Amino acid sequence: MKRKLTLEELRCARRNLWEKHHDASKDSDFTKFVADQILDNEDLRLEIYDNPILLIELTFSVVDKKRRSVPFFFNEIQKDFVNKLSTLGTKKPYFILKGRQQGFTTLITALILSNAIVKRNFSGFTLADRDDNTKAIFMDKAKVMYNSLPERLKPTEKFNSTNELFFDKLNSSWRVASASSNVGRSRTLSFIHYSEVAFFKCPISDLQKSIAEAATEEAVCIYETTANGFNDAKKLWDSGACHNLFYEWWKTSEYTSYEYEYLKNADTWLKNRLSSLKERGLTKEQLTWYAKKYNSYIDKSSIRQEYPCTPEEAFVSSGDCAFDKEKISNYLSTFKIESRRGYFKYSLIPIPLYDPSGRIIAFENTIDNIEFCESENGYISIVEEPQKIRRGGDTKLTPYVIGADTAGTGNDYFAAKIIDNVSGKCVATLHIKNIDEDLFAHQLFCLGKYYFDALIGVESNYSTHPVRVLKALGYKNLYARSSDLGKIESYGFLTTVTTRPLIISNLVAVMRENIHLETDRQTLMEMTTFVKRSDGRTAAVDGAHDDLVMASAIARYIAQYYDHTYKRVDTYKDFLSKHFSSLPLQEENYMEW
């Protein structure tokens, strides 16, 4: 008895036949043979029903970039996504961020179609950004695949229109529409594809209230797009709500060229970019392709969005970035800095106040029993512990500076940046949205003590409460503004029309000279959306935040006026008595730090 072929053997046979002949008619005859094998073999039918994706490489055809009908065999990035979909499941949506023409719309179209012609009660829905793209997806991709199928695989149709397929015996369907706020209501959906979601005219939040609410518990949901500035798609990417998948352009194997002359006339930007890409292992042919593509653009900056090298670069900001975005992007592409996350636990200790006769007349609080507690959900990240050095009999401590930005009117985050004032390196970052001002001040107190009584400069534009809390707790090393006579005028950093340009310009210069001094990814990402507006002011683009940027700017600015050399300590007890006079810490506690 002749052994029946497996699905994998049939797939390999189709590929071998194509590689040998490259003949569409021979391929069509073979897919008819494959259809017969599947439909006449219950085991194969059940295997396809359990995993309709297998049907794609067995029987589907597409039109390639040269307008030829060819078998649909997955390329490397399509294989990668199919594997991730199988491994990660459908508990979370997928967000695919990509360069142009990498084949994802074609792949997702095939995924939906394979389910629609196999599964009972399946309902797929594709949303596109424009009407013409809606038609292109359905007529140029879906219908081409469907019409090229062997007739035995096509279910009985009830509708076969310009935007919908409905198979009545299976009760399965697939519809394509342009994105609008109320689209998809009153449906129950098994698969939702948001095509070029970054270009949708309606808010994604509206779609989540309409079409997303129609999804079944096991529905596949895929957001797929090239980037389009800082908008809802960027917020969704940053939210952590999806499996974020970024596919660099060079993962598409066909993006190579042998026209090496394009490498010879590269401008300064392109030379630096090619050098960076070469360090990442790209071949000469891939670099040539990129140089040729760059040369084809009138607006050369377009290549960063159309063929990005990092997710951060893909989301090109509107306006001119105040920082060197290219340098930040290259740094982020290899960013691998580890940190400890957590928060400080502490005790509030009442200290009695006495009148001249020795009677207790009131109490003031201070903080004791400071302990850093590690937690994945912590809002403080520590990259480097406080550093002390010993030379001979001397112990010296690193001077630290803390810049802090309050939440202002309440819509922003509380942020703090801690700087090693010898090396200039950012050693820790605090970033939290929902916290009371006094509790924020308590965390600053703990950070300051943890980093050897660091100089703390707190932005005091909207509220002076954090500064007043720190003073009441007995923190002695607060940044103070002085009058023309040299007397202390007030504590805290005041950001004005005069000081804001100064601190921003200083931070931009520091980051231009040595971007590696910044060790926090979120701070770097904020810098990529911090732009020069048309009115001359620098700020975050609409919808973005700049709390970490402002905290960094304050820290870097006041650091210029603080110690840049290690602080000598004669004895630990001497240090404790001079710098922790309001806090009865024991020597052994300090030794643990």
Describe this structure in words.
- With 593 residues, this protein is an alpha+beta fold.
- It has 21 helices and 25 strands.
- The protein has an 8-stranded mixed β-sheet with strand order 5-6-7-4-8-9-3-10. A 7-stranded mixed β-sheet has the order 13-12-14-19-18-17-20.
- A hairpin with a 3-residue loop joins strand 5 (159-160) and strand 6.
- Helix 10 runs antiparallel to helix 11 (284-296) and helix 15 crosses helix 16.
- The chain is elongated.
- It starts with 6 loop residues before the first helix and ends with a helix.
- The model is unreliable at 575-593 (pLDDT under 50).
What's this model, at a glance?
By secondary structure, the chain is α+β, with helices and mostly antiparallel strands. The protein is 37% helix and 23% strand.
Strand content: 15-25%
Number of helices: 21
The radius of gyration is 31 Å
Number of strands: 25
Query: What's the multimeric state?
Result: single chain
Biggest sheet details: 8 strands, mixed
What is the structural class?
alpha+beta
**Poorly predicted runs of 5 or more residues:** 575-593
| Average predicted confidence as pLDDT | 87
- Termini separation comes to 78 Å
**What share of residues is helical?**
25-40%
**Order of strands across the widest beta sheet?**
5-6-7-4-8-9-3-10
> What overall form do the CA principal axes indicate?
elongated
